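Much of our argument rests on the idea that a fold can be written as discrete symbols. Part of our work consisted of pairing the sequence of a single chain with a tokenised description of its backbone. We regard such an encoding as a compact summary of how the chain folds. The amino acid sequence and the backbone structure tokens for this protein are reproduced below.
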Amino acid sequence: MAWDLGIESLLVWLLIFFIFGILWSYFTPQLLSLQSNLIVGRVRKSLRELENWARETRRIALSSLLKHGRTKRDIEEELNNFLEFFAIGPVSDDPVGVLGRLDHILDVRKKRFEDAVATFAPKADPETAATLEMVIEGAIASNFLYRVVRHFTLLAEKTKSYQLIMAIQMYMPIFREYAKAYRDATRTFSQNQPIGDGVGSLVAAKLMGGSKPRELVKDTVLAETEFEKRKLLIVKAKGPGGRVGKPGELINMLAKKRRIDRIIMIDAALKLEGERSGHVIEGVGAAIGGPPTEKYKIEQVAVKHKIPLDAIIVKESFREAITQMNTRLARAADIALERVKKAIRERTNPGDCVVVAGIGNTLGIGQGVGELPNKFPQPSEEGEIESDKLFIPV
């Protein structure tokens, strides 16, 4: 079959392509607009879920506060206003002294939270008040996440930005996971249950045994004991209220008064997807998260006095870190405790003085054996992909 390449056929094909181009130019924006409207509908549905979870965390916070002396009518409006509380970080363009300024801002923020809880719940005891601060923190985080996602959703609709609404849709599964975690965390805080982030504090409390702790720095305790002819200075946040304390400040104070031969730190660390929760690993350095102020203090002490820094961490997911500690993480705390003892035996000598710092939120975890939690739920496998379930081609 021969192709007819005459001028008439060429004109026909040019006409067809011209018509197709016009139709494509006309209908493509319409199809994009239709697709955008469909995506907006799905995003709005997810946004309503975020709103419901934010409202639920607010209800949990409000009901927790109402148990301690004031009525709903008295504090509801004040709580709504406080849920948008913020702290402005220091200027970092001139980095000299920035961590000192940040430390001051964090201290002021902490004091404002304490004053707010004292106002909302005047009959709460100190440990309950510390836990109520965490409940409010959970509600603030959930409320902030919802407001940010709502802002970009409305902005995308207002500007008819197809690219922005697509980006929101792609990130929405992550936003939903964070929102659910904040909701569950706020519920855990309100029940005064230990959380995954407290695994380091749990190890320190177990190592304290029957030693009498002293609060030498605000919200941070020190217990002194001996282990196989070594002097142990055990540092953790004061429990069982929800606190993280100031371990860096306490270790700095100890280094000025005593000779310290080694510092061993235990903390929780976020695992990568596909890794096993509760896996205990070792390294070196200051194992402490959050704002860098306390980490900086510990590093300064270690450098000044040439003190070796050991780090023992327990891997866990973000959800596990802020929700109730499960049996897998509780077993990991026992493993981490044995790792601490092994490190002391192998890397120190009899007569040495060793600082053991249990880092993390000490919610539901007191000082010593008699004040430790003993019941933990089974770990939830929802959304977990363990490493032994992955197929890795060789």
Notes: Residues 298 and 372 are 27 Å apart (CA to CA). Confidence is low (pLDDT under 50) at residues 385-394. Residues 27-190 form one domain. The chain has two domains: 27-190, 196-382.
